[in-house]
Each structure stands twice: as C-alpha cells, then as structure tokens.
C-alpha cells in the first residue's frame, strides 16, 4: 500500500520539480545549475496563462513532497530487514537491485532533508542548494525508475493477494503475519501482532493528513493559512494593504531609503537612446491593475492587486517595440536574484507590470518600492523588487 501511494505521489513531485527548473528560464542561463550538460530539459517559453500556473506546480511540488514524508519513512521502516541482509550481494541481479536502492533511498532522503531545511532556513548549506537539489533529483529519479521496474510486478501481485476491505476490517487480535516468501521480510518466528494492518495504515495516513493540514494553507490561503506552522518562510508582513508575505526584506537586501528616494530613476535601455524616468513620470503613464499571485519556490503564495505600467508600454517608451527578452536589474547589490531575464511572451502579456502600487497604495520598501516586476505565472524571485533598470533585447541583439 505504501509503495502504491508513492508510485502515484512521487511522479507528481518529480514532474513539478522539473517544471520549476524550466520556469526559471534555463535558456537564459538563470536556472540553477546553469550548465547541466546533456541532462538539460527542453527549452521553451514558460507560459503566462493561467496566471496561477507556477502557484499550482510549485505548491504541488512542496505540498505533496511534505505530505509524502511520513509515507516514505513508513515504507523504509517496512523494509528495514532488507538493508541488513547478509551477504549483501548474492548475484548480479541482486547487485543491480542494491544499486537502485542506494540511488532511491539515498536520493530521496537527501532531497527531503535538504528541501525541508531550505524551506525552514534559507541558505544554511555549505553548498549551493539549487545545484545539489537538481543533481540529487536525477540520482533519485534513476533509482526510482529502476526500482519501480523491478518491484511493480511484486506490488501488484501482493495487493491482489489480500483484499483491502478485509484488511480494514481486521483487528490487531485477529491479525496474522504474512507467510514466508522470497522477500525475506517475514520473521521465521514472528511475535503476536501489536498493531493491525489497518492500524498501521491509519497511523501513517494520519501523519500525512496532519502534515497536509500544517502545510497546504501556505499555498491555498483561506482559513488554513494560519495553520501552516511548519513553513515559517514568508511570515514577515508589511502594514495595511502591504500586509502580506515578504521573502527578502529591504534590510536583508541592503536597500536604503536614499537609494529609493527622490533621486531614483528607472533606466530603460535597448532602444535608440537610453531613457530615464522618475517615479512621477511612471505614475503619469497609463496605469493598469491586475490581481495576480506571487508564488515562491518554498511553496508559499499570495494573491494581491497590483497597479503600474505595462512592460510592453515601457518597451514602446524605450523605442524597443516587440522585444524578445529583457534584463531587469535591481538596486540590490548582492544575492542570487538581483537580476532576472524575462522572455518575450512575459513582456507582451497585458498583465505584466512594473508595479508602483499594491491594493491601491504605494508599495512598501520591503515589497519593492519604488517599483517592482509583476508577471503572471513567474517564479516569485524573478518578480524583481527595487528595479533600477530594464534592458530590452530585440532580434537576439
């Protein structure tokens, strides 16, 4: 049963994780790791519709991954004797199975531990989390596929052997051990059962349900938002209409009020001549409002109403109509996401904005004042805050 659940859940985590890598724009060299050799995924422009696409994919990646943790641990517990079989290798076939187990168990434990720690404590590792998580994922995927190919027939045969309804009706007092078979997991002299099979399923299922209650609110919002106790990232709030999650504060980014004061100018590059606009200049341009989500790689998301100038209008103001891409640079001087490249479809979308306001008021400094990027379905870290310049690129030049 545990294996059947993981056979459904783990592919969801795998696919959504790889989609997250694509959403970062590896074709611009800004996904991590940037150079993955022959393991690179197909390059394509990440869609801007629906606007909640990244919120869905990354929410599933983090949410389902966390919910599966109790099931992964239970699955490992159920096969502990296999890890201590002596001699460890008796044949070439068993050696291949052992190798797949090393990749599977080692890979999934590495992905779980580093993933959970990255959610709770940002950048605590002595290595780049994104790079390690990506390569660790491929080790796990190789182990998962090979192990599934070997064990799915056994799983199907075992599930057919015993009725689930029968299992759910059987108490601990009536529970009997499995008959000895070739797996070697059944003791030669088993003690009386201390828990029924339905009890084991209920215990693990209850653990998974508890994790779900404590995590899904960060992505779905609503009344479950306050129950997301295991995921403190994004719990720094602003004031009034700016009262929503902040992943990186102005203090952490070393943004000073002087940098964002009256002397601030937005530099528009890529046209015939550079254009510099004050915040008053931007406010005098046609304004557009859109209700859009921000979704973070850690799994949390929030939906707010943003107001500002369309990016395609800024391209026109810079005499760089129909750009293929644009490099957005922040006032932030350090950090992995002080700049981001946007694709042509992201620039052209009618709701892609250089936002000046949120929920009808000026952005707070923590939320990116004097101006920030908001693009539908874009990973949160690429919705650059404290924008200092935008360089539009046309025809690959």
TrEMBL record:
<dbReference type="InterPro" id="IPR008335">
    <property type="entry name" value="Mopterin_OxRdtase_euk"/>
</dbReference>
<keyword id="KW-1133">Transmembrane helix</keyword>
<protein>
    <submittedName>
        <fullName>Molybdopterin-dependent oxidoreductase</fullName>
    </submittedName>
</protein>
<keyword id="KW-0812">Transmembrane</keyword>
<dbReference type="InterPro" id="IPR000572">
    <property type="entry name" value="OxRdtase_Mopterin-bd_dom"/>
</dbReference>
<feature type="domain" description="Oxidoreductase molybdopterin-binding">
    <location>
        <begin position="256"/>
        <end position="394"/>
    </location>
</feature>
<feature type="transmembrane region" description="Helical">
    <location>
        <begin position="57"/>
        <end position="78"/>
    </location>
</feature>
<dbReference type="Pfam" id="PF00174">
    <property type="entry name" value="Oxidored_molyb"/>
</dbReference>
<dbReference type="InterPro" id="IPR036374">
    <property type="entry name" value="OxRdtase_Mopterin-bd_sf"/>
</dbReference>
<feature type="transmembrane region" description="Helical">
    <location>
        <begin position="99"/>
        <end position="121"/>
    </location>
</feature>
<keyword id="KW-0472">Membrane</keyword>
<feature type="transmembrane region" description="Helical">
    <location>
        <begin position="133"/>
        <end position="154"/>
    </location>
</feature>
């Amino acid at each position: 049963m545990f294996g059947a659940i993981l056979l459904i859940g783990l592919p969801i985590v795998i696919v959504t994780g790889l989609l997250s890598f694509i959403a970062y724009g590896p074709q611009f060299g800004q996904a991590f790791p940037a150079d993955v050799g022959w393991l690179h995924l197909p390059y394509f422009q990440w869609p801007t519709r629906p606007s909640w696409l990244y919120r869905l994919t990354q929410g599933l990646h983090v949410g389902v991954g966390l919910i599966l943790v109790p099931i992964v641990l239970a699955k490992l517990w159920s096969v502990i004797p296999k890890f201590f079989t002596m001699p460890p290798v008796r044949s070439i076939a068993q050696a291949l199975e052992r190798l797949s187990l090393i990749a599977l168990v080692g890979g999934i434990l590495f992905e779980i531990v580093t993933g959970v720690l990255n959610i709770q404590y940002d950048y605590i590792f002595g290595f780049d989390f994104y790079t390690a998580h990506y390569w660790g994922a491929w080790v796990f995927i190789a182990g998962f596929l090979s192990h599934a190919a070997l064990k799915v027939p056994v799983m199907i045969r075992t599930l057919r052997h015993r009725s689930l309804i029968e299992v759910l009706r059987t108490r601990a007092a009536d529970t009997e051990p499995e008959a000895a078979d070739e797996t070697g997991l059944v003791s030669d002299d088993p003690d009386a059962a201390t828990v029924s099979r339905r009890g084991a399923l209920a215990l693990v299922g209850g653990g998974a349900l508890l994790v779900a209650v404590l995590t899904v609110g960060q992505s779905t919002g609503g009344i479950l938002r306050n129950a997301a106790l295991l995921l403190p990232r994004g719990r720094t709030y602003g004031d009034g209409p700016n009262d929503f999650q902040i992943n990186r504060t102005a203090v952490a980014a070393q943004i000073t009020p002087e940098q964002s004061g009256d002397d601030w100018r937005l530099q528009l590059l890529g046209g015939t001549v550079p254009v510099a606009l004050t915040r008053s200049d931007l406010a005098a341009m046609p304004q557009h409002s859109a209700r859009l989500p921000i979704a973070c790689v850690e799994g949390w998301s929030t939906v707010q109403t943003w107001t500002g100038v369309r990016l395609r209008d800024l391209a026109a103001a810079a005499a760089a109509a129909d750009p293929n891409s644009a490099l957005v640079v922040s006032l932030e001087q350090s950090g992995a996401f002080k700049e981001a490249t946007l694709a042509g479809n992201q620039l052209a979308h009618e709701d892609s904005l250089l936002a000046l306001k949120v929920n009808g008021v000026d952005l707070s400094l923590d939320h990116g004042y004097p101006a920030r990027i908001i693009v539908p379905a874009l990973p949160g870290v690429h919705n650059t805050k404290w924008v200092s310049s935008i360089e539009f690129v046309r025809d690959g030049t």
